[in-house]
Amino acid sequence: MLPTAEEAAQALRDIALVKHRAAGFQDYQAESGQLILWGLAYVAGFVLTACFRDYILPIWIAVVLVALTMGIRLARRSGAGAEVAWRYIGVIGTFLLFGLALNLVFWPLSPEQSAMLAPMFLAALYLLRGIQLRPRYTVIGLVLGTLCLVGYLFLLPVFWAWMALACGGTLILSGLWLRSG
Amino acid sequence: MQTPDEIIHQPVRLKIMAALNTLDAGQWLEFVALRSIVQATDGNLGAHLATLESAGYVLLKKDFAARKPRTRACLSRAGREAFHRYVIALQAILAPQNLDADAWDSKRDRGE
């Protein structure tokens, strides 16, 4: 028997809804691996910074390069095309240029102030992405930004250890949260 | 006017087909992920997947990942074509004057 127009319209609405849900699910899955990876990178970076304050620059160069290489491999494995490497380098390059530009504008910055730039930028990006696309990103941006700011304003004596937890830990937990579906 | 496929025209099976249709060819979706997208119970989803598999619309693969049993699903070529025909049939019901049988045939021939 032929469905009525109302039934047909409802079926098409169901299809659109599932399509949207599936896209969100796949997006969260792809993002979760990256969040965990960069969370681990931040934990390693901040812990090493806390231990070897005189080697901040080489520590972070090494951390970013290792995470960048692994991130590209992860993105390729999740089904992204070969061009993802350039997009990935573009995104990380934008982060680095943003940090460099702010350093130039506000120079001199303390190491703690410099360390706040990337997490705050990341938090703002997730907030914007969440507002426009998917609600969980808003929560991630809010938690990340708030915890990092609290550390800078109130916990400077234990700043590096706090950032390992607040930034790295938040990203890792966020990745696990997105993975849970 | 083309009658929509009765196998697909069931709410849970329609959602399964719609979810699997979002995947690229050769890409599989895990049972737990599909359950979360379709929002069905294990038993319900399993039963409808079996129906779709019997119809040749869905391929199921069972294996182990980290020593845990894993079931994955994807649309077969026939399933993808059937879903495409189903959507066109629904659109024809909503706008029969714009999508008569000839238009449907020409769309199918173009592989849209």
Q: Please compute the radius of gyration of chain B using only Cα atoms.
A: 15 Å
The residue-averaged pLDDT of chain A reads 92
Q: CATH H level of chain B: which superfamily?
A: Winged helix-like DNA-binding domain superfamily/Winged helix DNA-binding domain
Number of folding domains of chain B? 1
Topology order of chain B in helix (H) and strand (E) letters: HEHHEEHH
Oligomer: heterodimer
Structural class, from secondary structure content of chain B? alpha+beta
Unreliable runs of chain B: none
The biggest beta sheet of chain A is recorded as: none
Q: Can you give the mean pLDDT of chain B?
A: 85
* Uncertain runs of chain A: none
Assign the CATH class of chain B. Mainly Alpha
How many E strands of chain B? 3
Helical coverage of chain A, percent range:
over 70%
Globally, the shape of chain A reads elongated
Please, could you describe this protein's structure?
The complex is a heterodimer of chains A (about 180) and B (about 110). Chain A is mainly α. Chain A has one domain. In chain A, about 85% of the residues lie in helices and about 0% in strands. Chain A contains 6 helices and no strands. Chain A has helices at about 5-50, 55-75, 85-105, 110-130, 135-155, 160-180. The relative contact order of chain A is 0.14. The mean pLDDT of chain A is about 90. Chain B has about 110 residues and is α+β, with helices and mostly antiparallel strands. Chain B has helices at about 10-20, 30-40, 40-55, 75-95, 100-110, and strands spanning about 30, 60-65, 70-75. The model of chain B has no long low-confidence stretch (mean pLDDT about 85).
